[in-house]
């Protein structure tokens, strides 16, 4: 991004979300977004692959932070605890940008195309977690199961956050992980 | 289906899978499938929404069986155990049609469009499991967490089955559920 384009990406994001919320995701075109942000369509496609992409653009960065957090967890920690620390970092990052994250959630929940995209995003986070655990020496299947169980908890906590926007996401994640321990522990 | 169309659906399924495996999913058209099955395109679309649909057409029926199994589990069983019994039924049904199920897995694994479709299918199974547990009186969040954890285990067992086609899926599901108990149990 050139110096003459301060926060172009952020402007496009805000314009897109505003229009999606106002008139619906399906009804909004890229041309309308760029007009609203006073930028060109070419600029839009320099930052985003399509109009879904605007809503998931932070995911790569978040995934990287999750991987780094898991890698940095004390070697003595269990796979579950190391993975949970990654999850907590993601939850904290989302909590900081709460209003924006909640707007996104609302849009995703109401739009089938975006829900599918979210499933793909979650699956890629699970892969990242599994890889990060493997690199800690966790056996392959245990790494995959832990990663998938973490994502299961994140999905549920996320949904709850959408329904109870005044709760704190990191706390909801902790509660959901406790719930997971309870239900799995009472398995027999 | 009329009496003059014995197993039309099965013929279309087999023709489709044969061509997908032979020449690739993306390269195969509905016209080729119907020609291969000696049927018309109109007949194809009476049975399937699109060429993805052929590979997921048993999912609704399986979901129904899972729901019924969970509903029929002894009232004293924990949410986890009831959900696991549903999962085991699904695994047994897939094991019976092993070769076909394995062909499908191969195709899904190698085709991004089908992987996305599979994620959607898994998400809908999770919803079914959560609903079936709610109807047993399991509290909402516990039901969702249990359902998502089950699907996490199913996903991993399924992947393993693809890599080790000679193993039995029901046993892989059991092993994965045990693994889940281990990793979650050693959470602290």
Explain what the structure shows.
The radius of gyration of chain A is 18 Å and the shape is elongated. The first copy, chain A, has helices spanning 8-23, 30-37, 41-47, 59-72, 79-96, 98-110, 112-135, 140-163, 169-185. Chain A contains 9 helices and no strands.
CATH superfamily (homologous) name of the largest domain in chain A: Tetracycline Repressor, domain 2
**Gap between N and C termini of chain A:** 57 Å
Strand content of chain A: under 5%
What is the rounded Rg of chain A? 18 Å
Report the major sheet of chain A: none
Any low-confidence stretches of chain A, pLDDT <50, length ≥5? none
Q: Which oligomerization state do the chains in this entry correspond to?
A: homodimer
Question: Using DSSP, what is the number of strands of chain A?
Answer: 0
Largest interface: A-B, 36 and 35 residues
User: Please, how many domains of chain A?
Assistant: 2
Coarse morphology of chain A? elongated
| Tally of individual helices of chain A | 9
CATH class categorisation of the largest domain in chain A: Mainly Alpha
Helix content of chain A: over 70%
Question: What is the topology?
Answer:
Two copies of one chain form a homodimer.
Chain A: H1 8-23, H2 30-37, H3 41-47, H4 59-72, H5 79-96, H6 98-110, H7 112-135, H8 140-163, H9 169-185
Helix pairs in contact in A: 1-2, 4-5, 4-7, 5-8, 5-9, 6-7, 7-8, 8-9
């Amino acid at each position: 991004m050139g110096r003459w384009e301060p926060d172009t990406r952020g402007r496009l994001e805000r314009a897109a979300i505003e229009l999606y919320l106002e008139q619906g995701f399906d009804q909004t075109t890229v041309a309308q977004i760029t007009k609203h942000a006073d930028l060109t369509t070419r600029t839009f496609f320099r930052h985003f692959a399509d109009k879904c992409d605007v809503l998931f653009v932070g995911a790569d960065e978040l995934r990287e932070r999750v991987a780094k957090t898991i890698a940095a967890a004390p070697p003595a920690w269990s796979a579950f605890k190391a993975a949970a620390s990654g999850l907590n970092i993601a939850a904290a990052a989302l909590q900081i940008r709460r209003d924006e994250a909640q707007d996104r959630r609302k849009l995703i929940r109401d739009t089938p195309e975006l829900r599918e995209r979210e499933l793909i995003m979650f699956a890629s986070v699970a892969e990242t977690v599994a890889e990060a655990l493997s690199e800690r020496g966790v056996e392959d299947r245990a790494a995959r199961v832990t990663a998938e169980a973490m994502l299961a908890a994140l999905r549920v906590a996320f949904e709850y956050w959408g329904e109870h926007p005044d709760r704190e996401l990191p706390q909801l994640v902790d509660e959901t992980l406790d719930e997971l321990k309870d239900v799995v522990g009472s398995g027999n």
